[in-house]
Amino acid sequence: MKKGILTLALMGVFSAINADDINIYTPGEGEGIAYFLPKTSLELNIIATKVKYTPGDFCQYANRYLKLSNVTSEPSEYWEIKSIDMVAVGVPDSTKAYIIKLNDKSVSSNIELTENGIVKAINTTTTEEKHPEYKLEKSPEAENPRKYMTEEILSAGSTAKMSELTAKEIYNIRESKNMILRGQADAMPKDGASLKLIIDNLDKQEKALLSMFSGNIQKEDKLFSIRITPEGNLNNEVIVRFSKKLGVLSTDNLAGEPIYINVENNSPSQSLNIDGNEDKKKKRIKGILYNIPGKANISVSYKGKKIIENNHMPIAQFGGMETLVDDLFNKKVNTRVIFNTVTGNIQKIDKD
Fold it and tell me: Quick one: which of 37, 203, 225, 230 is 20 to 30 A from 103 by CA?
């Protein structure tokens, strides 16, 4: 076998493992499988909606014929925050990188890694971890109102006359719906399905013609994800900014209002000393290392109001490390371990 490090991009790496053959990983040196324990990164996911208003052709007549107030003739575009949430994700901790030597004389075992080299499991496999899925909505294409206009409306000689006749057509549609719903129409639908079909079609016509006066609003959701990896306490740290005019902005763009994050480490200091005063290259670790995550109080605020609050969230880098004794991985014991890839702690362990 050539000397070097096997790729970290493998989802499942099969090898023989001996806990006595685990060393601190020094890039460019060693032979075996390199893996990382994770740090906990906080991912803020913002769904912002872009709203575009296009005035209708008859907007100046909206109040006169349909009593619609506050209808403007000026087009506009702006942003709204639809939702904000936060999830914890695992990222490789460069200070916790280790290498497992391959040993053909050891009991056959395997180590499973994530795509970025974080240890997932030993001697077993895990289900694929799923990132939260967000439903992003977009307004359907607006109906062309002119296809619902009568010949009389389309042949009118002026915008004022067209708007007057269109308003009358809207009132006629409303009257037709009322007659059907009251059971007073000359030709009533035969069943509930037919009734719904007719009412839906009349609603579509009314909405399309009404947009000639009220205008049309198109909405489209966009997802913005921002990550931060806290190394200590954060007090009103600006994580991102938001502008109604420009949307989600970077922290240094003062055109937007700040969204703050607070992180309070409420764990006692704890750390397993694996280095001592020895040369890292020569240090041998007696057992499989894993994280004991600390806890933190997390909050996110916007315009003076807390929008996210999570007390006692596990944070890998706020805790320490422990070892699984090497006897668990000898030839006489088949030990299976599943790790949390966000915090690095043991999720499940069994043996036979």
Answer: 37
